[in-house]
Amino acid sequence: MRWLVLYTALLIGANAGWAGEIDWQAAHDGGLAKLQQTDPTPVPATTFTDPEGGTHSLADYKGKVVLLNFWATWCAPCREEMPSLDALQAEMGGEDFAVVAIAAGHNPPPAVRKFLDEENITHLPVLLDPRQALAREMGVMGLPVTLLIDREGNEIARLMGGADWSSDTAKALIRQATAP
């Protein structure tokens, strides 16, 4: 009996592929019906900015799981889902995970700041893609679009349209994606 327990423990411990598996069907059934798993695709090195003129890229987040959201102040579904993205970042953001919300297209920084202040969005930095260079390179055709990026910098899922990112289903998805 001891050998059976030892063998089972070694087998489970040695099979790292079992850890961190995402249950895509559960995510779909639990309310993220528009979430589509994608073939792992490296994200581009295209830069985006902040209101102070700082330059950023998705490589800045390598080693973290990222929920990348493209949005705009004029987009009603974007405005509706932004509080849930902020709540997800507040609860789960940290060393292993980040919500990166980028205002794509014509979104003057004062308008972005005004919207975030009005909606009490306090956990997301102001990031901008004014010429939609990153959005275009990532094949974003409408807004909002949210991409799940693994620790190696590969897009692994995409959701077109709005979603409740503070739901238990979304949190379970992020826990699965960040599992060792």
Automatic annotation (TrEMBL):
<dbReference type="Pfam" id="PF08534">
    <property type="entry name" value="Redoxin"/>
</dbReference>
<dbReference type="GO" id="GO:0017004">
    <property type="term" value="P:cytochrome complex assembly"/>
</dbReference>
<feature type="domain" description="Thioredoxin">
    <location>
        <begin position="37"/>
        <end position="179"/>
    </location>
</feature>
<dbReference type="GO" id="GO:0030313">
    <property type="term" value="C:cell envelope"/>
</dbReference>
<keyword id="KW-0732">Signal</keyword>
<protein>
    <submittedName>
        <fullName>TlpA family protein disulfide reductase</fullName>
    </submittedName>
</protein>
<keyword id="KW-0201">Cytochrome c-type biogenesis</keyword>
<dbReference type="InterPro" id="IPR017937">
    <property type="entry name" value="Thioredoxin_CS"/>
</dbReference>
<dbReference type="InterPro" id="IPR036249">
    <property type="entry name" value="Thioredoxin-like_sf"/>
</dbReference>
<dbReference type="InterPro" id="IPR013740">
    <property type="entry name" value="Redoxin"/>
</dbReference>
<dbReference type="GO" id="GO:0015036">
    <property type="term" value="F:disulfide oxidoreductase activity"/>
</dbReference>
<dbReference type="InterPro" id="IPR050553">
    <property type="entry name" value="Thioredoxin_ResA/DsbE_sf"/>
</dbReference>
<dbReference type="InterPro" id="IPR013766">
    <property type="entry name" value="Thioredoxin_domain"/>
</dbReference>
<keyword id="KW-0676">Redox-active center</keyword>
<feature type="signal peptide">
    <location>
        <begin position="1"/>
        <end position="19"/>
    </location>
</feature>
